[in-house]
Design a protein that fits this description.
Mannose-Binding Protein A, Chain A, 18% strand, 4 helices, alpha+beta
Amino acid sequence: MEKVSFVRNAPQVFFNSAGYFKSRYKTFGKAVYGSNRWVLLCLGLLNVVLLIVAVSLGIKCAKVKESSIHVTHSSATQPTSEYLHDNHSNVIEAGENLKKTLETAIKNHTLLKEQIEQKKSINDENQRQVETLRTEKTNLQANISALEGTCGKCLPGWNILNSSCYFFSYLESSTVKKNWADSRADCVRRGADLVVIDNQEEQKFVSDSIQNMKTTTNRWGNGFWIGITDVHSEGTWTWINNVTMLDRRYWMDGEPNNRGQKEDCGVILYSSISPWKTMFDGPCHYPYHWVCKMDSR
């Protein structure tokens, strides 16, 4: 049997006399010669096709990869987006709840404020009523004291000394003052007259009674009209009962002085220096408090 050798020989390439490219292969121990122009052309086309296929495959793979990444990214971001959306909704809902709570608190505050104002008004009214009741109580106690002190011999609000009753206008009103003539008219209306001081005991009683009845820091403004005048004869001081005052010991030092030629009515005030020297003369038109006197019952 003849043996066949499979030894590959290197190709031999040459150009023939016509200028064609030729090669010779020895295959299976035999030499092979032929034209390779079409072979090379086919190989070139094949390479182009392979290149196109490779590029197409590369593009396809890139698109697939991009799509995969996009899907992965969408899958990864979707829960986050949903989570943020849910949180946003929760925040809005919580804000609405807080707003409603705040509105309710404001309404409650307004209502509470109105209730406080109402209670304050009621309390102020109650306080005024309490003050009124206290004033009435004080007046009643004063009347009781007056009745107890005078044993019913004097009217309520009047003070008693021996067999006479005395009315001090300050006790009825600390702000109302009158001139001498109007003060006397008020005493007459009450069934009395301006006080006529007959003795030292009465002088001291009247002076001590008005000690705390003051309306000003000016001592001359705290006087009380009494029933004596020299209007009919300058320098001749006569009580309203037509008794002429001869004893000048009740006048303050330097009084009466008829200052300005217009002081014709008698005034009494409290003196810490001497309870006897408490009288001075004043203008009859000047407003003072006054002292009335009447016999007890």
